Amino acid sequence: MNNCIVRINESIDSFSAQELRVAKYVLNHQEDVSQMTISELAKKSKSSTATIVRFCTALGFKGYRDFIKSFYHDVVSNALGDENIYEIDNVNPAELSIEDTINIVTRLNIEAMTNTLKVIDKKCVEKAVEAIDKANRVCIYALSGSVVVADDAAFKFERLGIDCQVFNTVHSQILSASILKPNDVAILISYSGETKEIISIAELANKNTHNTIGITKYGENSLSKVCSVNIRHSSIGKGLRTYSTRSRVVQQNIVDILFVALAQRRGDNLKKYYELFKDGPGKDVTEDVVVKGKK
Fold it and tell me: Do residues 144 and 227 share a domain?
């Protein structure tokens, strides 16, 4: 498992205080740390070997040896390039020229997509595709900016013959989640994974179906603890997030991944959709479908 430096940066918000101390030391002394033993790192970072082991485990490594091997690879290959993208993300938007804005926003979008590729769990994607494909009904829950992503997902899934609906108000979400069936799938979208209303809906959904899929940022968060399957994306964009749509860029990329994977299984449904609308959604096409349906 490589992409160690990316994983550390993506997990910053979810580390304990002790783990965060280790993370900051590691990021600030990369070349030195790549040559250290666990005891040396514990001494230099003013922590304990037990804390470092927990730090490595939180990143998905089996232990320190597994971690340092990946970390050394990142340092040698200069995985982040000449400029740290996570530092660029914290610039003050008010100080940017139009040229800087174009370059930085575009680069952050590209990096967010690239880093999502590095941290996304392929097995979780497979489980999500399997569950959605076999679902009797798919219910998508989202609030605020994530509603755009939810609507996009519903539009695409419906083209594949999947019974799918978006619930974007708390009241409708509660009603929907309370009547879910065992073979239904609940998809919950939250950038931070800490939106209280979405977490509550996930908990309610779990009482009726075990097929709860969370789409949220990388690292441990409240939503990921509740959902049975988690598809995590890069959190790049939190610094300039108010001024861009990067969170939706990476989430919509995940929707596209699910759509294409499902289309491989449901190609006939997609073909029917295109046949239905090949001449446009005009009156003649609608009438033709109705007539054929009667026959």
Answer: yes
The predicted-structure confidence for 173-207, as pLDDT tens digits, reads as follows: 999 999 999 999 999 999 889 999 999 999 999 99
**C-alpha closest to that of 147 among 196, 116, 189:** 189
- Does any domain span residue 40? yes
β-sheet bridge partners, residue 259 = none
pTM score, whole prediction: 0.73
Domains: count for the chain: 2
Cβ count within 10 A of residue 225: 12
CB 221 within 8 A of CB 196: no
| Integer Cα distance of 187 and 165 in angstroms | 10
Query: Is the same domain home to 234 and 157?
Result: yes
Q: How far apart are CA 77 and CA 236, in angstroms?
A: 21
Tokens 């082991």 found at: 53
Does residue 170 form part of some domain? yes
Counted residue by residue, the chain has a size of 295
